[in-house]
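New to this. Please check this record:
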Amino acid sequence: MKKGDKVRFLNAVGGGIITHIEGATVYVEDEDGFEIPTPANEVVVVNEEKSAPQSQSARTYFTETPKKVEPVKEVITTIRETESGVQSSDEPHIVLSFLKADKGNSGDLELYVVNDSPVYAYFTIGQVSEDGRRSEPIYHDELIPHQKELIGRFNPQRIDNRLWQCQALLYHPTATYKPYAPISRDIRIKSVRFFKDNSFVENDYFDDKAVSYDITSDELEIQIEKLTEHDMHAVISEKERKEQQKQSKKSISDILEVDLHIEQILESTAGMSNGEIVQVQLARFEHVMQENIDRKGQRIAFIHGVGNGRLKTEVIKLLERRYKKAQYQDASFREYGYGATLVTIR
């Protein structure tokens, strides 16, 4: 109990508002303005709005909060429950997707949460305070496997540059299942992104283009997403012109060769960690893929070298997660040894 709580008496009729607390005694002001000292064990807090954490917060952000659950589009994985538990070959993915609400000029967005996972998820969104010490609840619900749910409709300007904390606990209520670590990820919502048409892209879950945040991204991908558009251009512009000149001289004219060695991207790596270097290399990879993603039949040889294999592994992870329509294989051993991956845009 705390000051300001509304309570009712257990052994008498009535109740009121707690004005202050002294030890085991609470002072309750009734509707007539009288302050009544009462043992704390003889009053109970009245919870008039059990659903307040979700409904009140949702009203703060969403002009409409319809309940709409749909199957995930083109679900590939089939879930099968047996006596031994849940069997599934895919890993969990929880995605927040923002879609344009209508064809007009309202600027409103619809926010969906997608549980593309073989198990249930208890999912919460909280808006982090400016001092980072508290979170205001925005949304919470149980998400069933391979479903997408419409959270609500809102104007993005109302949440510009606010930090959202997204958390998920994965489980299955009726069968044994593979244990997953709890998921926690902070995303910063910048409304300017929603006013650029090229921010909305094709995706696996909706017929319309969307701006999406994968809550289950690994740490490396999260760091890459934090790179601003300015950072991206700063990383690659220095070498862009030289790279284009080099391409015209290649013996294999129909293959675009992209050298991901860091010395071909940056003049100096002084002060950079290995992780930061890999981020820059993957940023270069993403830039080239985005430039060529609509050029069907285009072949791109990404030269990553052998090394410890980390860069190649991360390139393949991005191809499988974000560019599922692209085909990849080891590039020609005669031309590149073991240090290149050939990608074909389909």
